[in-house]
Amino acid sequence: MAGATRNSREEPATQGRPGGLWATLEQATEREREAGSDLWESLRDRLDFSKAKTRRLAGTEVAHHRTARGEEYYVLRNPEANTYLKLTPQDYFLWELLDGEHSVRDLAVAYVVRYGTLPFQRLPHAPCRLPLAEQGHGDGR
Fold first, then answer.
1. 3-12, 51-60, 106-115, 122-131: which has the highest mean pLDDT?
2. What is the pTM assigned to this prediction?
3. N or C, which end of the chain has less CB nearby within 10 Å?
4. Gap between the Cα atoms of 87 and 81, Å rounded
5. Are 141 and 45 in contact (CB under 8 A)?
6. If DSSP codes are grouped into helix, strand and coil, which group holds residue 97?
7. Of all residues in the chain, what percent are helix, strand and coil, respectively (each to 5)?
8. Phi-psi category of 140—alpha, beta or left, where left has phi over 0 and alpha has psi -120 to 50?
9. What is the pLDDT of residue 140?
């Protein structure tokens, strides 16, 4: 029985298949790796905040006001939830661009063009804090 015992790490007989078990496993692993990269790429795109496309809620009521000192502000009202949100003119500018077509990146560029500064304090919270906006994904969903 000297030659009858096989080492468990040896490849089994290929029976006509080139490469045997290890080559087959390597090919299967490579296919999974390729399929998995599509999943991770898709996940990366969906989690990329700059690609989010948010839309204003239909039916949101807008009122433009001015304080006694002449400062402008806007009040948004969601009639379904009976919620209100006070916005500065800069925040209202961003809110107007929430049409489901503009990405957060587009909003940042428009803000820089209009106000000459990056909206670091405004953008991360604008779509999330608004009970008056619907979240969307970069691919239009």
1. 106-115
2. 0.57
3. N
4. 18
5. no
6. coil
7. 40, 20, 40
8. left
9. 43
Residues 88-95: contacts with CB under 8 Å, at least 24 apart = 90/115, 90/119, 90/122, 91/122, 91/126, 92/62, 94/119, 94/122, 94/123, 94/126, 95/56, 95/126, 95/130, 95/132, 95/133
**Cα 61 to Cα 38: distance, rounded to the nearest angstrom:** 41
Convert the pLDDT of each residue in 56-115 to its tens digit.
Answer: 888 899 999 999 999 999 999 999 889 998 999 999 998 898 888 888 888 889 989 999
In angstroms and rounded to an integer, the radius of gyration of the C-alpha atoms of the chain is 28
Q: Packing angle between helix 89-96 and helix 104-115, nearest 10 degrees? A: 140
Residues in the chain, overall count:
141
Q: Do strands 133-134 and 99-103 pair parallel, antiparallel, or not at all (unpaired)?
A: unpaired
Nearest in space to 65 (alpha carbons), one of 43, 84, 48:
84
